[in-house]
Design a protein that fits this description.
alpha+beta; Alpha-Beta Plaits
């Protein structure tokens, strides 16, 4: 009877590893988060921000996440998967990192990004911070639109001056 129970437990863990592998493969970014010391209210607020951004945030067993990464041929995370670890699966490259870094400051560094997996590459803590500093797509579009608007405005002013001089 005990052997059957152990076998069922092993099969359940294999299923969880497969689910983690699928999430890693489907995500544009995966951020490992150390969340030690958060209060329940802080954790709830943190999770709500992830939900609003479409980021899946889960506390998973380090051994299962390590196995999933290793099965995908990624061993860079072996040292990061120790202690308290949660995993944020992002639909884009920067939103999960931004939320972690912003909340680390807000919650007096009770949580921090351990590392991330973005576009098939390992990023250490400093890499995650650099990624979080990149403006969102919408902000970049606004910057481009503003720049183009200034160029067009400058061209219109220059052409207007040329036309005024020709009219004299």
């Amino acid at each position: 009877m005990e052997v059957k129970s152990l076998s069922a437990n092993i099969e359940a863990k294999k299923q969880v590893v497969e689910e983690i592998k699928a999430k890693i493969s489907a995500s544009k970014s995966v951020v490992l988060v150390d969340y030690k010391g958060l209060t329940v209210a802080e954790d709830t607020e943190f999770r709500n921000e992830f939900r609003k951004a479409g980021v899946q945030y889960k506390v998973l067993k380090n051994t299962l996440v390590r196995k999933a990464f290793n099965d995908l041929g990624v061993t860079a995370f072996d040292n990061d998967l120790n202690g308290t670890t949660a995993v944020a699966f992002g639909q884009d490259e920067v939103s999960a990192s931004k939320i972690v870094i912003t909340n680390a400051k807000k919650f007096d560094n009770k949580l921090f990004a351990k590392s991330a997996y973005v576009d098939g590459a390992y990023l250490d803590k400093k890499g995650v911070e650099a990624l979080a500093a990149i403006p969102s797509k919408e902000a970049l579009y606004a910057q481009v639109a503003g720049t183009l608007s200034n160029i067009v405005r400058g061209l219109a002013v220059a052409l207007n001056r040329v036309a005024e001089k020709m009219g004299e």
